[in-house]
């Protein structure tokens, strides 16, 4: 437990000292929310536009932080030889990975709180009526995307191309899943693609809970899909995750 606590503290210090990580992973969803609320007016899904945009940004934050942020950190450390050296230290590899995962989830927790606070300050968005359901849904979404983040590290072959790969996945997924607004007017082919993406089910569930007063247990289908993506990601990660650099 002492080793885990020490490593978790170290991971938090490393994250907040990295300007690139702080901007891309933590601040970008907040900046995007501020920009979108300045552009969108009227209603979305029968609620004021800022409410719906906040709901979408919470789901988008799970993808950028738990998927993108985690994958970028681990690929960078693998390709620079840090992960390989970790395995030669007294710190158990499982403890190290758990500390990285928990640190990522802590960052996402702070980001979600900051989004609610920013929405309240900028556009008087309400706090969740069913807080427990929101927390459980965000935890499930973060776990799902963390598993997928671990899995994608086995596919990314170089440090130089890691950011491009992550952005090519996250941004289209966010647009197709409704993080930035309704997708009902999209062509049928694009909607069909969105319907199989995990972020779509996280966005829809967040809309149902935050915007319309639903509960998490009212959406067993979405919970099952997110859990299935999490299990699939974890299975791929177990087979493909590497501790040593893939190149030279």
Task: Describe the 3D structure.
The chain is mainly α and 248 residues long. The chain has one domain (2-240). 74% of the residues lie in helices and 2% in strands. A two-stranded antiparallel sheet has the order 1-2. Strand 1 and strand 2 (47-48) form a beta hairpin. Helix 9 packs antiparallel against helix 10. The chain is globular and about 55 Å long. The two termini are 36 Å apart. The mean pLDDT is 92.
Quick recap:
This protein is mainly alpha-helical. The chain has helices at 2-17, 19-39, 49-79, 82-86, 93-123, 131-152, 162-177, 188-194, 198-211, 220-240, and strands spanning 43-44, 47-48.
Number of DSSP E strands: 2
Mean pLDDT score, rounded?
92
- The low-confidence parts are none
Radius of gyration: 18 Å
Spatial order of strands in the largest sheet: 1-2
Helical percent range? Answer: over 70%
Overall number of structural domains: 1
The CA-CA distance between the termini, in Å, is 36 Å
Order of helices and strands: HHEEHHHHHHHH
Proportion of β residues? under 5%
- Secondary structure class reads mainly alpha
How many separate helices?
10
Describe the main β-sheet briefly: 2 strands, antiparallel
User: In terms of quaternary structure, what is this?
Assistant: single chain
Shape: globular
